[in-house]
# Entry
Amino acid sequence: MFSEEEIKAETERMYAKLQHVGFGRALCQMFAPLTLEINRLKKEKNAVILAHSYQTPDILYGIADFQGDSYQLSKNAQDTNAEIIVFCGVRFMAETAKILNPSKTVLLPSPAAGCSLAESITAEDVRELKAKYPGVPVITYVNTSAEVKAEADACCTSANALAIVESFPNDSIIFLPDRFMAKNLQKMTAKKIISWNSACIVHEDFRAAKINQFRKKYPGLKVLAHTECAPEVVDVSDFAGGTNDMMRFVEQNEAPSYMLVTECGLSDRMRAEFPEKDFLGMCGLCPYMKQNTLALILQVLKSPKSEQIIELPENIRLGAERALRKMFEFSKVLVH
Ligand code: SF4
# Structure
């Protein structure tokens, strides 16, 4: 279907970035017919592809129009003129795109791409907490379902959680659902943080002792931890934040070597973006994030199955949108 010249040019386009994450020309050539076809279909169908930084490098650098964290991608979703949004990430992210773009078709290639945090709590759980702590505001991390967001007073991301907690006048805040993020926040605010007992299955596995071993072996190493890590891990790190915050830190820092205490996809993305810097391995794989593949993305663009199309009841969508817009308002980033 594609000429030899087209395949060769596509191979070289991908190889320019992917060589830095260990992909050879042969692998890029293998992906080239798929990425060419996906990119062709994208134009034909007026679709945009958003990819979270934890996606595989062939998705991030072969077909994605935008790459970033869930907050960045929700803004990209808001700004696009495309009629179809293909979300290469997990379900709560695709739901967020739909909440902000009710008239657009939002597709999630792998319908089983969930999240241990988002699945740990239901709307009923939040209603019970509100009954137990009447009048206490509820802030939910974006890693929650639309139903849970609809019960919240505001949403937040790792980058703006503290600002949003502080923006409420109350002495207590219900912060859901990540217990580690809640503990990290508790160290930075005088307010009482009431949390939920769940964690990200990737970030809960990191240990401070391992980081200390790396530090001894590599003097000058900068350690960047995600705020979903336990406080002991954050305490021995040089910086804590979300994935886009980590990208900015590396971009603005002169240090030659870094350890990213988060999902492995971010290290690959950093290697592709900053080939002159070293990234040492301390990462875990998210089994949900890695469910999207080029083959699935091609299929969803050609003929999406009903379970790959994000649909939300309007009352839930409106409630969740209200909580998301509070976040944009509090973090002084107006969506429109
Ligand atoms: S890395 Fe953790 S928080 Fe992110 S999608 Fe996977 S399980 Fe959820």
